[in-house]
Known about the structure:
The structure is a single chain. By secondary structure, the chain is α+β, with helices and mostly antiparallel strands. The chain has helices at residues 9-19, 94-108, 115-122, 171-177, 205-212, 216-223, 231-235, 280-299, 309-313, 320-331; strands spanning 2-5, 21-28, 31-36, 62-70, 76-80, 87-92, 124-129, 155-159, 163-168, 185-186, 242-249, 252-259. The strands form 2 sheets. Strands 3-2-6-7-8-9-1-10 form an 8-stranded mixed β-sheet. It has a 4-stranded antiparallel β-sheet with strand order 5-4-12-11, with no helix packed on it. Helix 5 (205-212) packs across helix 8, helix 5 (205-212) crosses helix 10 (320-331) and helix 6 (216-223) crosses helix 8 (280-299). It starts with a strand and ends with a helix.
Amino acid sequence: MKLLPKDNFTDLMDALSQQALVYVPKEVTGVLKFAPYSTPDPLRLDATNTLLPPKDMLFPQCQKMYHYGIDNNNEMFIDPIIESCDQILFGARPCDIRSLECLDEVFLTKGFIDEYYQEKHDKLLTVAIGCTQPAKTCFCESMGLNPNEAPSADIMLHEAENAYTVEAQTPKGEHALNAWEPFLTEGEVETAEVHCTLNVDSTNIKEKLDKLSTSPELWDALSIKCLNCGTCTYLCPTCYCFDISQENKYKEGVRFRCWDSCMFSEYTEMAGGHNPRPTKKDRVRNRFMHKLNYFEDRYGKMLCVGCGRCVEKCPVNLDITVLIDRIGALSHE
Length: 333
Protein backbone atom coordinates (compact mmCIF):
# COMPACT_ATOMS: atom_id res chain seq x y z
CA MET A 1 0.00 0.00 0.00
CA LYS A 2 1.38 3.39 -0.97
CA LEU A 3 1.39 5.97 1.80
CA LEU A 4 1.92 9.70 1.87
CA PRO A 5 3.29 10.53 5.34
CA LYS A 6 1.77 13.72 6.68
CA ASP A 7 5.30 15.00 7.31
CA ASN A 8 5.86 14.89 3.53
CA PHE A 9 2.58 16.54 2.62
CA THR A 10 3.79 20.15 2.33
CA ASP A 11 6.82 19.11 0.27
CA LEU A 12 4.55 17.23 -2.13
CA MET A 13 2.20 20.18 -2.48
CA ASP A 14 5.10 22.54 -3.12
CA ALA A 15 6.36 20.20 -5.84
CA LEU A 16 2.93 19.84 -7.46
CA SER A 17 2.40 23.59 -7.50
CA GLN A 18 5.55 23.93 -9.61
CA GLN A 19 4.00 21.65 -12.25
CA ALA A 20 0.40 22.84 -12.36
CA LEU A 21 -2.15 25.17 -10.86
CA VAL A 22 -3.26 23.28 -7.76
CA TYR A 23 -6.69 23.98 -6.25
CA VAL A 24 -7.21 22.92 -2.65
CA PRO A 25 -9.96 23.42 -0.06
CA LYS A 26 -9.09 26.48 2.02
CA GLU A 27 -10.70 29.44 3.70
CA VAL A 28 -10.67 32.67 1.69
CA THR A 29 -12.11 35.68 3.53
CA GLY A 30 -14.08 33.33 5.73
CA VAL A 31 -15.48 31.23 2.88
CA LEU A 32 -14.43 27.61 2.47
CA LYS A 33 -13.76 27.06 -1.24
CA PHE A 34 -11.31 25.56 -3.70
CA ALA A 35 -8.55 28.10 -4.28
CA PRO A 36 -4.97 28.03 -5.59
CA TYR A 37 -2.49 26.45 -3.22
CA SER A 38 0.01 28.68 -1.47
CA THR A 39 2.37 27.65 1.33
CA PRO A 40 1.38 30.07 4.11
CA ASP A 41 -2.33 29.29 3.89
CA PRO A 42 -3.54 26.16 5.71
CA LEU A 43 -5.39 23.52 3.72
CA ARG A 44 -8.72 22.31 5.09
CA LEU A 45 -8.72 18.63 4.17
CA ASP A 46 -10.28 18.03 7.58
CA ALA A 47 -13.29 20.27 6.98
CA THR A 48 -16.77 19.42 5.79
CA ASN A 49 -17.63 20.18 2.18
CA THR A 50 -16.62 23.52 0.71
CA LEU A 51 -19.31 26.16 0.32
CA LEU A 52 -18.41 26.68 -3.34
CA PRO A 53 -18.01 23.59 -5.56
CA PRO A 54 -15.06 23.03 -7.91
CA LYS A 55 -17.13 23.16 -11.13
CA ASP A 56 -15.63 26.50 -12.20
CA MET A 57 -12.33 24.73 -12.84
CA LEU A 58 -14.01 23.17 -15.89
CA PHE A 59 -16.95 25.51 -16.38
CA PRO A 60 -15.86 29.02 -15.31
CA GLN A 61 -18.40 31.44 -13.92
CA CYS A 62 -17.50 33.82 -16.74
CA GLN A 63 -15.57 32.61 -19.78
CA LYS A 64 -14.44 34.39 -22.94
CA MET A 65 -15.37 32.40 -26.04
CA TYR A 66 -14.08 34.38 -29.00
CA HIS A 67 -12.88 37.76 -30.14
CA TYR A 68 -14.59 39.19 -33.22
CA GLY A 69 -14.53 42.33 -35.28
CA ILE A 70 -13.65 44.00 -38.57
CA ASP A 71 -9.98 44.27 -39.49
CA ASN A 72 -8.09 46.96 -41.40
CA ASN A 73 -9.14 45.38 -44.71
CA ASN A 74 -12.77 45.76 -43.70
CA GLU A 75 -13.13 41.99 -43.38
CA MET A 76 -14.78 40.24 -40.46
CA PHE A 77 -12.68 37.99 -38.22
CA ILE A 78 -13.54 35.54 -35.44
CA ASP A 79 -10.73 34.28 -33.21
CA PRO A 80 -11.63 31.59 -30.64
CA ILE A 81 -10.28 32.19 -27.14
CA ILE A 82 -9.44 28.88 -25.50
CA GLU A 83 -7.53 29.50 -22.30
CA SER A 84 -6.34 26.59 -20.19
CA CYS A 85 -3.39 25.25 -18.25
CA ASP A 86 -2.56 22.09 -16.33
CA GLN A 87 -4.70 21.99 -13.20
CA ILE A 88 -4.95 19.69 -10.19
CA LEU A 89 -8.11 19.46 -8.12
CA PHE A 90 -6.75 18.24 -4.79
CA GLY A 91 -8.87 17.11 -1.86
CA ALA A 92 -12.27 16.88 -3.55
CA ARG A 93 -14.95 14.83 -1.81
CA PRO A 94 -16.67 11.93 -3.60
CA CYS A 95 -19.81 14.01 -4.17
CA ASP A 96 -17.83 16.67 -6.03
CA ILE A 97 -16.06 14.07 -8.12
CA ARG A 98 -19.46 12.61 -9.07
CA SER A 99 -20.62 16.12 -9.99
CA LEU A 100 -17.80 16.37 -12.53
CA GLU A 101 -19.02 13.10 -14.06
CA CYS A 102 -22.43 14.73 -14.53
CA LEU A 103 -20.89 17.79 -16.19
CA ASP A 104 -18.86 15.49 -18.46
CA GLU A 105 -22.12 13.92 -19.64
CA VAL A 106 -23.50 17.32 -20.60
CA PHE A 107 -20.45 18.83 -22.27
CA LEU A 108 -18.74 15.77 -23.77
CA THR A 109 -21.41 13.24 -24.83
CA LYS A 110 -24.53 12.76 -26.96
CA GLY A 111 -22.80 13.80 -30.17
CA PHE A 112 -21.74 17.22 -28.90
CA ILE A 113 -18.37 18.20 -27.50
CA ASP A 114 -17.85 21.62 -25.96
CA GLU A 115 -14.26 22.44 -26.92
CA TYR A 116 -13.86 24.98 -24.11
CA TYR A 117 -14.86 22.42 -21.50
CA GLN A 118 -12.87 19.62 -23.14
CA GLU A 119 -9.65 21.65 -23.15
CA LYS A 120 -9.87 22.15 -19.39
CA HIS A 121 -11.09 18.59 -18.79
CA ASP A 122 -8.12 17.06 -20.59
CA LYS A 123 -5.67 19.12 -18.52
CA LEU A 124 -7.26 18.38 -15.15
CA LEU A 125 -5.99 15.81 -12.64
CA THR A 126 -8.47 14.93 -9.90
CA VAL A 127 -7.24 13.86 -6.47
CA ALA A 128 -10.12 12.83 -4.20
CA ILE A 129 -10.14 12.19 -0.49
CA GLY A 130 -12.60 10.05 1.42
CA CYS A 131 -14.87 11.99 3.72
CA THR A 132 -13.78 12.20 7.34
CA GLN A 133 -16.57 14.45 8.59
CA PRO A 134 -19.83 14.54 6.60
CA ALA A 135 -21.94 17.58 7.43
CA LYS A 136 -25.37 17.15 8.97
CA THR A 137 -26.81 18.23 5.59
CA CYS A 138 -24.88 15.62 3.56
CA PHE A 139 -26.99 12.82 2.07
CA CYS A 140 -24.82 11.44 -0.72
CA GLU A 141 -25.44 7.82 0.29
CA SER A 142 -29.14 8.33 -0.39
CA MET A 143 -28.17 9.36 -3.92
CA GLY A 144 -26.21 6.17 -4.52
CA LEU A 145 -22.73 7.43 -3.60
CA ASN A 146 -20.19 6.17 -1.11
CA PRO A 147 -18.67 9.02 0.96
CA ASN A 148 -15.49 6.98 1.33
CA GLU A 149 -14.82 6.31 -2.37
CA ALA A 150 -14.69 8.21 -5.66
CA PRO A 151 -14.10 5.60 -8.37
CA SER A 152 -13.73 8.08 -11.24
CA ALA A 153 -11.06 10.21 -9.53
CA ASP A 154 -7.56 9.88 -10.97
CA ILE A 155 -6.04 9.42 -7.50
CA MET A 156 -7.83 8.43 -4.30
CA LEU A 157 -6.64 9.33 -0.81
CA HIS A 158 -7.82 8.09 2.59
CA GLU A 159 -6.70 9.66 5.83
CA ALA A 160 -5.03 7.58 8.52
CA GLU A 161 -3.42 8.72 11.76
CA ASN A 162 -0.04 9.83 10.41
CA ALA A 163 -0.41 9.37 6.67
CA TYR A 164 -2.73 9.21 3.70
CA THR A 165 -3.21 6.06 1.67
CA VAL A 166 -2.65 6.73 -2.03
CA GLU A 167 -4.16 4.78 -4.92
CA ALA A 168 -4.09 5.55 -8.65
CA GLN A 169 -7.43 4.73 -10.26
CA THR A 170 -6.89 5.82 -13.88
CA PRO A 171 -4.00 5.79 -16.36
CA LYS A 172 -3.71 9.55 -15.85
CA GLY A 173 -3.43 8.95 -12.12
CA GLU A 174 -0.80 6.24 -12.55
CA HIS A 175 1.29 8.58 -14.68
CA ALA A 176 0.93 11.41 -12.16
CA LEU A 177 2.09 9.21 -9.27
CA ASN A 178 5.52 8.94 -10.88
CA ALA A 179 6.16 12.49 -9.69
CA TRP A 180 4.89 11.62 -6.21
CA GLU A 181 7.30 8.71 -5.62
CA PRO A 182 9.98 10.71 -3.72
CA PHE A 183 7.34 11.60 -1.13
CA LEU A 184 5.70 8.18 -0.76
CA THR A 185 6.46 5.15 1.38
CA GLU A 186 5.11 1.60 1.57
CA GLY A 187 3.17 0.26 4.52
CA GLU A 188 -0.14 -0.85 5.98
CA VAL A 189 -2.50 1.40 7.91
CA GLU A 190 -6.13 1.37 8.91
CA THR A 191 -8.57 4.00 7.69
CA ALA A 192 -12.02 4.63 9.09
CA GLU A 193 -15.23 4.60 7.07
CA VAL A 194 -17.86 7.27 7.62
CA HIS A 195 -21.55 7.43 6.85
CA CYS A 196 -24.08 10.21 6.39
CA THR A 197 -26.42 10.97 9.27
CA LEU A 198 -29.08 12.37 6.92
CA ASN A 199 -30.83 9.69 4.89
CA VAL A 200 -33.81 9.77 2.54
CA ASP A 201 -35.44 7.09 0.42
CA SER A 202 -34.71 7.87 -3.23
CA THR A 203 -35.71 4.40 -4.45
CA ASN A 204 -37.48 4.64 -7.82
CA ILE A 205 -37.64 8.42 -7.44
CA LYS A 206 -37.76 8.93 -11.20
CA GLU A 207 -40.74 6.62 -11.63
CA LYS A 208 -42.52 8.24 -8.69
CA LEU A 209 -42.02 11.67 -10.26
CA ASP A 210 -43.34 10.41 -13.58
CA LYS A 211 -46.68 10.01 -11.80
CA LEU A 212 -46.44 13.18 -9.70
CA SER A 213 -44.94 15.55 -12.25
CA THR A 214 -48.01 17.82 -12.29
CA SER A 215 -49.26 17.15 -8.76
CA PRO A 216 -50.48 20.38 -7.12
CA GLU A 217 -50.14 18.72 -3.70
CA LEU A 218 -46.42 18.42 -4.35
CA TRP A 219 -45.45 21.61 -6.15
CA ASP A 220 -47.81 24.21 -4.64
CA ALA A 221 -46.63 23.70 -1.08
CA LEU A 222 -42.98 23.40 -2.09
CA SER A 223 -42.77 26.52 -4.24
CA ILE A 224 -44.78 28.97 -2.16
CA LYS A 225 -41.84 30.09 -0.03
CA CYS A 226 -39.17 30.12 -2.78
CA LEU A 227 -37.57 33.55 -3.35
CA ASN A 228 -36.15 32.69 -6.78
CA CYS A 229 -32.82 34.03 -5.49
CA GLY A 230 -30.76 31.42 -7.36
CA THR A 231 -28.57 30.53 -4.36
CA CYS A 232 -29.25 26.82 -4.86
CA THR A 233 -28.17 26.90 -8.50
CA TYR A 234 -24.96 28.85 -7.94
CA LEU A 235 -23.85 26.61 -5.07
CA CYS A 236 -24.92 23.39 -6.78
CA PRO A 237 -21.95 21.45 -8.22
CA THR A 238 -24.05 20.07 -11.10
CA CYS A 239 -26.06 23.09 -12.29
CA TYR A 240 -24.84 24.22 -15.69
CA CYS A 241 -27.30 26.84 -16.99
CA PHE A 242 -25.51 29.66 -18.78
CA ASP A 243 -26.17 32.76 -20.84
CA ILE A 244 -24.14 34.08 -23.77
CA SER A 245 -23.53 37.78 -24.20
CA GLN A 246 -21.01 40.12 -25.77
CA GLU A 247 -19.07 43.27 -25.04
CA ASN A 248 -18.63 45.55 -28.04
CA LYS A 249 -16.15 48.36 -28.56
CA TYR A 250 -16.16 50.15 -31.89
CA LYS A 251 -15.28 47.58 -34.59
CA GLU A 252 -14.52 44.67 -32.29
CA GLY A 253 -15.82 42.80 -29.30
CA VAL A 254 -15.69 39.69 -27.16
CA ARG A 255 -18.41 37.09 -26.80
CA PHE A 256 -18.54 35.32 -23.46
CA ARG A 257 -20.71 32.97 -21.49
CA CYS A 258 -21.53 33.20 -17.81
CA TRP A 259 -23.52 31.21 -15.32
CA ASP A 260 -27.26 31.76 -15.30
CA SER A 261 -30.06 30.24 -13.25
CA CYS A 262 -33.24 28.46 -14.23
CA MET A 263 -34.76 29.99 -11.08
CA PHE A 264 -34.70 33.47 -12.64
CA SER A 265 -37.85 34.50 -14.50
CA GLU A 266 -35.81 35.98 -17.36
CA TYR A 267 -34.01 32.69 -18.04
CA THR A 268 -36.78 31.30 -20.26
CA GLU A 269 -38.26 34.60 -21.40
CA MET A 270 -38.29 34.88 -25.20
CA ALA A 271 -37.74 37.92 -27.38
CA GLY A 272 -41.46 38.37 -28.00
CA GLY A 273 -42.18 38.39 -24.28
CA HIS A 274 -43.55 34.85 -23.99
CA ASN A 275 -42.25 32.83 -21.05
CA PRO A 276 -42.95 29.07 -20.99
CA ARG A 277 -42.19 29.01 -17.24
CA PRO A 278 -43.83 32.22 -16.05
CA THR A 279 -44.51 31.33 -12.42
CA LYS A 280 -42.35 30.54 -9.45
CA LYS A 281 -44.05 27.15 -9.21
CA ASP A 282 -43.09 26.35 -12.83
CA ARG A 283 -39.45 27.14 -12.15
CA VAL A 284 -39.23 25.23 -8.87
CA ARG A 285 -40.87 22.23 -10.50
CA ASN A 286 -38.49 22.34 -13.47
CA ARG A 287 -35.40 22.52 -11.26
CA PHE A 288 -36.29 19.49 -9.17
CA MET A 289 -37.65 17.50 -12.10
CA HIS A 290 -34.32 18.09 -13.85
CA LYS A 291 -32.35 16.90 -10.82
CA LEU A 292 -34.39 13.79 -10.13
CA ASN A 293 -36.11 12.86 -13.40
CA TYR A 294 -35.14 14.53 -16.67
CA PHE A 295 -31.38 14.05 -16.32
CA GLU A 296 -31.74 10.38 -15.47
CA ASP A 297 -33.96 9.98 -18.52
CA ARG A 298 -31.22 11.35 -20.76
CA TYR A 299 -27.99 10.27 -19.07
CA GLY A 300 -28.92 7.42 -16.74
CA LYS A 301 -27.98 9.08 -13.45
CA MET A 302 -29.47 11.59 -11.07
CA LEU A 303 -28.22 15.15 -11.22
CA CYS A 304 -28.26 15.51 -7.44
CA VAL A 305 -25.14 14.18 -5.70
CA GLY A 306 -26.34 14.77 -2.14
CA CYS A 307 -23.68 17.34 -1.23
CA GLY A 308 -26.20 19.30 0.86
CA ARG A 309 -25.06 22.78 -0.16
CA CYS A 310 -28.54 23.89 -1.23
CA VAL A 311 -30.02 22.42 1.95
CA GLU A 312 -27.57 24.34 4.11
CA LYS A 313 -27.75 27.73 2.39
CA CYS A 314 -31.32 28.16 1.12
CA PRO A 315 -32.55 31.28 2.96
CA VAL A 316 -36.09 29.88 3.32
CA ASN A 317 -35.12 26.24 4.02
CA LEU A 318 -36.50 24.84 0.78
CA ASP A 319 -35.06 21.38 1.25
CA ILE A 320 -34.64 18.77 -1.51
CA THR A 321 -34.56 15.98 1.10
CA VAL A 322 -37.99 17.06 2.34
CA LEU A 323 -39.17 16.98 -1.28
CA ILE A 324 -37.89 13.42 -1.72
CA ASP A 325 -39.67 12.32 1.44
CA ARG A 326 -42.85 14.07 0.27
CA ILE A 327 -42.64 12.32 -3.10
CA GLY A 328 -42.43 8.99 -1.30
CA ALA A 329 -45.41 9.80 0.88
CA LEU A 330 -47.60 10.99 -2.01
CA SER A 331 -46.69 7.99 -4.15
CA HIS A 332 -48.24 5.70 -1.53
CA GLU A 333 -51.50 7.62 -1.18
